[in-house]
Amino acid sequence: MIKLIALYRKPDDPEAFFAHYRDVHTPLVRRLPGLERLVLDRVTADAFGAEPAYVLIAEMHFADRETFKNAMRSKENAAVAEDLGGFARGLATVLIAEATVDG
Amino acid sequence: MIKLIALYRKPDDPEAFFAHYRDVHTPLVRRLPGLERLVLDRVTADAFGAEPAYVLIAEMHFADRETFKNAMRSKENAAVAEDLGGFARGLATVLIAEATVDG
Question: Is-contact B88 B24, C-beta < 8 A?
Answer without folding.
Answer: no
